[in-house]
Design a protein that fits this description.
By secondary structure, the protein is mainly α. The protein has 5 helices and 2 strands.
């Protein structure tokens, strides 16, 4: 009887987190910060909710040699994927992936303004603007 109660509690706990993440994903410009002890299922709940919403998952691969240069290239790929390609995307990022304080600052800028200052050189900006004009025209805006 004790085991059954524990399993039901865990299942309910997981289902509540999945439903919260799903609700946020279905909102325009929705984003969520999940905090908890390691192994509590935050990533699993996020991945399942992402799958349920038919979103793409974007995760960075951290290595010993991962630097700010690779970080900025990954951010470019993420923003192009979500913007110019129009893919509904979840950026899954954990605290263990923070190799530099600038990573957190860049994420904060994306959440607040939708942009990272000085991420793109001028020629790349023009190319992105052209792609976005095509996307905007196809959406009738």
């Amino acid at each position: 009887a004790v085991m059954c109660v524990f399993v039901c509690f865990v299942c309910r706990y997981v289902l509540e987190h999945i439903s919260r993440v799903s609700r946020v994903l279905n909102q325009d410009n929705g984003h969520v910060l999940m905090v908890g002890v390691g192994g509590s299922g935050r990533q699993s709940a996020s991945k399942l909710a992402t799958f349920m919403a038919d979103y793409e998952i974007f995760q960075i691969e951290i290595s010993k040699t991962y630097s700010t240069l690779e970080w900025r290239e990954d951010l470019k790929r993420l923003l192009l994927m979500a913007g110019a390609e129009g893919k509904r995307t979840v950026f899954l990022f954990s605290d263990s992936q923070i190799k530099d304080e600038s990573f957190v600052e860049d994420i904060n800028m994306i959440l607040n303004t939708g942009d990272v200052p000085n991420l793109y050189p001028s020629d790349e900006k023009l190319e992105i603007l052209e792609k976005m004009q095509i996307v905007a025209r196809s959406l009738g805006k």
